[in-house]
Amino acid sequence: LETPPVNRTPVKKASSGVRTTTAAKISRPTPSPLPVTEAEHRQLTVMFCDLVGSTELSTKHDPEELREMMGSYQTTAGAVIESYDGHVAQYLGDGLMVYFGWPQAHEDDAVRAVRAGLEVIEAVQRLDVAAQLSVRVGIATGPVVVGETGGGDPSVPKTAVGETPNLAARVQGMAEPDTVAIGGITRGLIGSAFELEGLGAHSLKGIANPVELYRVLGDKGAESRFEATYADHLTPVVGRDTEIAMQLDRWQRAKDGEGQVILLSGEPGIGKSRLIHMLREKLAEETYTPIRYQCSAHHANSAFYPVIDQLER
Q1: Cα–Cα distance, 271 to 147 (Å, whole number)
Q2: Distance between the two ends of the chain, CA-based, in angstroms?
Q3: 3-state SS string over the chain?
Q4: How far apart are CA 73 and CA 229, in angstroms?
Q5: Beta partners for 44?
Q6: Other Cβ atoms closer than 10 A to 312
Q7: For every one of its 313 residues, what pLDDT tens digit does the chain have, with 9 covering 90 and above?
Q8: Which one, of 273, 284, 186, lies nearest residue 225 by Cα?
Q9: Separation in Å, CA 228 to CA 63, 195, 204, 240, 290
Q10: Residues near 153 by Cβ (< 8 Å), separated by ≥ 6?
């Protein structure tokens, strides 16, 4: 039997910012070979991460020293991206092209990409190398046709056909050093999870229409991932009367002195968090103290992570 991670406690979930320490000098990760798949139509969030001033670095440092710096940078960035289930599609010399949403898709791929971008910047700044390194990150989301090529070899570009990879590269070119810039579609998908600064509409090379760009200033540290992502554009709930009535019945029993526990279980995206949100709306006029703990798949090895995060907040 496999022991579950210690932070997966049977309590209500609570969100958090991301805190991961990445070792600077470790061997460059070798992506595991992925099964060859036929090309498929997907919505993909693409990240381009580029090392700032690489040409200048090459003139100031000998090749061996430069190679060590580049290896540390790529290893560190790759480890952070892997922790968010991103896929490094290609190492581009001093840059990386990363897919979020392929080969495995998640309901929060855009959020994962932005958090990974912020953490890559912090991790690269902490590297113990011969020069202070900085990166710029660009992220865009859109439809592509994507499939495996090259048997998982990161030196072989993976086929992602569409405007999105080109857009992500152009967005990265507009980012300031040590910042994350995102396009309009990505901005819509991340909701209110991050502090943003509007950069206005820009005409980008190879892109037909002007693109609204945003600079990500940081994670808001919202108490609930659901409310941060979806609260601003919730659609009406249909067909959940039984579940809502059950929750209200258990609430009444608890008020009458009978302690109650409700476990909502199911596949991602079927409305579990929405039911909790609706219960809180129904209890808006009640007097009670809500305490929310939210587990994080990215902190499975951090003991009592939800409790620590809630206490910090």
Answers
A1: 30
A2: 35
A3: CCCCCCCCCCCCCCCCCCCCCCCCCCCCCCCCCCCCCCCEEEEEEEEEEEECCHHHHHHHCCHHHHHHHHHHHHHHHHHHHHHCCCEEEEEECCEEEEEECCCCCCCCHHHHHHHHHHHHHHHHHCCCCCCCCCEEEEEEEEEEEEECCHHHCCCCCCEEECHHHHHHHHHHHHCCCCCEEEEHHHHHHHCCCEEEEEEEEECCCCCCCCEEEEEEEEECCCCCHHHHHHHHHCCCCCCCHHHHHHHHHHHHHHHCCCCCCCCCCCCCCCCHHHHHHHHHHHCCCCCCCCCCCCCCHHHCCCCCHHHHHHHHC
A4: 31
A5: 142
A6: 10
A7: 444 454 444 444 444 443 444 433 444 455 444 444 577 888 999 999 999 988 888 888 888 888 888 889 999 999 999 999 999 988 877 889 999 998 888 888 999 999 999 999 999 999 988 888 999 999 999 999 987 655 555 555 567 888 899 999 999 999 999 999 999 999 998 888 899 999 999 988 888 889 999 999 998 765 556 665 665 567 777 888 899 999 999 999 999 999 999 998 888 778 888 888 889 888 988 888 888 887 777 677 778 888 888 888 7
A8: 273
A9: 46, 11, 30, 22, 17
A10: none
What is the spatial distance between Cα 236 and Cα 274, in angstroms, rounded to a whole number? 11
Residues recorded for the chain: 313
Which residue reads 């609570």 in tokens? 14
Q: Look up residue 223 and give its two tokens.
A: 């108490």
Residue 52: Cβ within 10 Å count: 16
C-alpha span between 127 and 79 (Å, rounded): 13
Bridge partners (DSSP) of residue 200 are 213
Rounded Cα distance between 259 and 254, Å, is: 5
